[in-house]
Amino acid sequence: MTDQDVDDLERVLESVRERVDPDEDERGSLEDVAETLRARAEDAVSELPPEADVIQVGSTARGTWISGDRDIDVFVRFPPEIDREELETYGLQVGHATVPDGHEEYAEHPYVKGEVEGFAVDVVPCYRLEDATDIRSAVDRTPFHTEYLNDRLDPDLAADVRLTKAFMKAVGVYGSDLRTRGFSGYLIELLVWEYGGFRPVLEAATEWTPPVSLDPEDHAAETFDDPLVVIDPTDPERNVAAVCSAENVARFQHYARDLLADPRPELFDPDEPDPLSEDDLLGHLERRGTTPVAIRLDAPDLVDDQLYPQLDKSLEGVTRGLNDRGFDVFRATAVAEETAVLFAELAVFSRPTVERHDGPPVHVRGHAEGFYDAYDGEEDTYGPFLDGDRYVVERDREFTSAREFLASERLFEVGLGAHVETALEDGYDLLVGEEVATLCEEFGEELAAYFDPAVYSRS
Predict the structure, then answer these.
(1) From 1.10.1410.30, 1.10.287.130, 3.10.20.30, 1.25.40.10, which CATH number describes the 152-271 domain?
(2) pTM, entire model
(3) What does the pLDDT read at residue 260?
(4) Quick one: which of 288, 438, 447, 456 has the fewest CB in 10 Å?
């Protein structure tokens, strides 16, 4: 970067800091509520048989939260001697005492979630362990993460973490949920610590050549097969970036280069597409000359981290089933709200009544004779005949249109997610061509992003 570029970037970052850094009043309000929550939890813990303690974790404990974020995570740590059932019972007891109006939710085990004075609060039980490699559930790691980073992130680095989070949110790569498959807050904090700030992270990312591997504590850990590998400094057997998709790593690289080349505050503003109208969707279809198909079903009652892997598996199966039958999938996606949709755009929607089926070369005697005998004299079959040195037949195609295939029982043989398959068995709508325009009412934003996917759309 030239000196002018550096100056331009710094001016942009200063303007962004003004809106992402919490001011003293906001910090004070959060700390007051957090102190109240800790006191309530500690009072409840003091009445329990096991010796437990209370800690605050997450971004609000590390000072890396963005202004406007109002999440407070309180962890209650129990001795490892108690069993899982006791941990859950005592944990919920403390949770309800801490957040009286809260409700129970379930991740790997139950916890209490609620709102206190406008702040979203989670009260989560976990085990108090000596080493993160001894964890019994994923949440047991979190206190180790807080302790590790509290010792390393000074106010300047914490401020750079906030910039990095704001940037990643804006370009659509923030979030380790299995719907987003992006960068977690902890991963961002580690990157800022490892590289030494926001700008160094950007500069490093512009030169990444996946697979990229970082090991902050030089654990010499095992090899991971992921595009981005950041070894957890508290647990050498874990890749903190395992959930990051190759596309989101590339997307971050693209926008890192864009910001460094042309610093501007707009790159820190989320770009939410306007919902696509039915007329606009039909216009895209006319221009593209493709045929869309959509399978619409009642969304299984699952949290996103359970639902989206099943939708992805189902979409992969449906896509493979269409391609195997000659209905070439141009592009595909899966989305869910009240309903769930497996959407595929086809380059080929219909095929001839007959299909070619190549057999083995004649000189491979055993297989060749078996192929010939299987089709010799078969009604409605052309052949077997020779094409070059191998037998070929032309036989009736099972499905001549994608609609026929997707409406048949063969759909259930493609490898669907278990809950998706159950939902499909209860019934589904099959939309073809212009019929998919009815999806705009529920999925207008998602369809807008699908039909305007340009990585440069923020420029």
Answers:
(1) 1.10.1410.30
(2) 0.89
(3) 96
(4) 456
Q: Quick one: pLDDT at residue 312? A: 96
Region for 218 from its dihedrals, namely left if φ exceeds 0, alpha if ψ lies in -120 to 50, beta otherwise: left
Enter the CATH code of domain 278-350+400-451: 3.30.70.590
Query: In whole angstroms, how far apart are CA 185 and each of 58, 59, 344?
Result: 8, 7, 33
96: closest CA among 44, 157, 151, 58? 44
Range 248-253 contact pairs with CB under 8 angstroms and sequence separation of 24 or more: 248/172, 248/173, 248/180, 248/181, 248/182, 248/183, 249/208, 249/210, 249/212, 251/171, 251/172, 251/173, 251/455, 252/168, 252/171, 252/173, 252/183, 252/205, 253/205, 253/206, 253/208
* Domain at 22-149, CATH class: alpha beta
Q: Tokens for 119?
A: 């702040």
Q: Phi and psi (nearest 5°) for 241?
A: -95, 15
The residue to which tokens 């659509």 are assigned: 172
Residue with tokens 């059932």: 85
Q: Both tokens of residue 318?
A: 């449906």
Structure token digits, residue 218: 């030089």
CB 116 within 8 A of CB 164: no
Counting as low any pLDDT under 50, the low residues of the chain are 456-459
Whole-number pLDDT of residue 123: 97
In SS3 terms, 49-78 reads as CCCCEEEEECHHHHCCCCCCCCEEEEEEEE
Task: Mark out the alpha helices in 289-393 (DSSP H runs).
Answer: 304-324, 365-375
Query: Using omega within 30 degrees of 0 as the cis cutoff, is the peptide bond preceding 292 cis?
Result: no
Residue 53 has a CB neighbour count (10 Å cut-off) of: 14
User: What is the edge-to-edge ordering of all strands in the sheet holding 382-387?
Assistant: 354-361, 390-396, 382-387
Query: Of the candidates 218, 235, 424, which has an alpha carbon nearest to the alpha carbon of residue 315?
Result: 424
Note whether 260 and 164 are within 8 A (CB). no
State the pLDDT at residue 456.
Answer: 43
Q: Any idea where the domains of the chain sit in the sequence?
A: 22-149, 152-271, 278-350+400-451, 354-396
